[in-house]
Please model this.
Amino acid sequence: MNAIRRLDPVLIDRIAAGEVVERPASAVKELVENAIDAGARSISVEISDGGRRLIRVSDDGRGMDKADLVLAVERHATSKLPEGNLSDIRTLGFRGEALPSIAAVSRLTITTRRADAQSGLSLQVDAGARGEPRPASAMPGTRIEVADLFMATPARLKFLKTDRAEAQAVAEVVRRLAVAHPQIRFALSGEHLTDFTWPAEEGDRDGLTRRLGRVLGRDFPDNAVSVDAAREGFALAGMIGLPTYHRGNAAQIHFVVNGRPVRDRLLLSAVRGGYADVMASDRHPVLALFIDCDPAIVDVNVHPAKTEVRFREPGLIRSLVVSAIRDALARAGHRAATTGGTEMLGALRAHAGGYGGGYGARGFTPPPRPARDSALADSWQAPHEGVQGYGARGFAEAGQAAFEAFAPGADGRQVDVVGSNPEAGERAGEDADAPAREAYPLGAARAQLHETYIVAQTRDGIVIVDQHAAHERLVYERLKRERAESGIARQLLLIPEIVELDPLDVARLGDAAEALAELGLVLEPFGSDAVALREVPATLAEGNLAALVRDVADALAETGEAAPLTRRLDAVLSRISCHGSIRAGRRLRPQEMDALLREMEATPLSGQCNHGRPTYVALKRSDIERLFGRR
Model:
């Protein structure tokens, strides 16, 4: 057996580099964080070959003198723990591992100058072998060049991805640091990525909004809600995207804890809880949340790369994030993403074969007029002779048909779209003139298409509403209010409804019987493979009760027995509201359509249904004019 011996210092640094510097993006992160800690107001990052061949990070920070420059490449030498207290970390770096670890696996050159110095200094470290500081011409600040990364550990190069993938990882690191520090100018350039320069912003709300617009997309500020909350030593601020402004992955979720960008599972779980029942489970929000607290109540020394944190009271911070997100979304009211109209226009253009001009545009020919003896000629859609405008009379008749007298609903019942909002009900009965109703955010109902979509006109455009999705959200929010205030009103069935189910579903419903009674569903097992439904929410007394019970059983199975009771109850309420809402295919009176619009405006979260789909799409008049080549 070999004797125990001390490892060579250079070998120690190379081993440490395996933990701290996993890829070029890791080196960029460490170098940019050093620049931020040095008080830089401008940071520039340049890379070549995805960062393998060259990484150059320049800043205008404090710079270093000769003594500091020599110590900077020594292992565990740092200026960021002045008192040596790991419970009071107020910088982004504190281990003293970054520069020596990078220098151990590359050719490192540091050029630096303090603002009060006459000239600068330069120091080179080649695969851990340090040279001597030499005079150099330099601007105030520090420039660090990392050439031939991992040349001393060539095996590590085999685990790197393509140059494009590594370059994108570098860009992601810079973006996250730019979100965390909007008061600093950031610039990034190199191969396989889109160069950018983001100017320094003021340290106020407007400055943050501008920076987030640059990083998260120019549409983000118009589709976001501000967050500002505090609780027991934690301060939470930032901006969160509307539920209908979402992405397919979590790359646009940004958390910043005391100025440090982090990826924390606890915070991700809190975001998921905050967006529960307003966003589909396979979609992810766009947001940036900043958490400030005493460094003593958060541990940033959990991982060598400092990308994870641990809170002393995780339950407290989770509940703060969840409640702050829910409050902000409630303030957003009926708002939906403004990008819905853009996506709709794109779909229309694609359907039209990419046409982008008006009549007479090259390559576009109006459709042929149908023969007079066709079946279409006798319908309201048909174009008619002698009327100004192609098909003008047919369209006018279609619009009028939506406002003719007809039965309130397919089953002869009056549709309840107003719920418990008497003001909306009063407005629904009024015969207000069109201009007054067009002043409302969702406008005045003009027609119902395919007995599914409500078309409303606003002062500067149109709104298309999915009547089932919208009313489903309204019913859901009303049932939640009733449950919280006085309990959901129930109606006793004259004859109990017997519903046959799988024995497992019967068992689940039996176990949840007490909780379901609070939601207006009173049932009991009826043998091993059926349940007897005795009472239902009053709004569902004449619905398809068997289908409702099966949906409730499915909701309980999906959420699982280990899920919190509140989450399971909300899932059940969501299924109930789906059965209690206006179905697609039901014809509505004009007053009912307007009442639905007014109730949407008064109901929080009505911009999306319980499954996260948008309830309406808005088009500006200017967008429509562009579609027809008028602009």
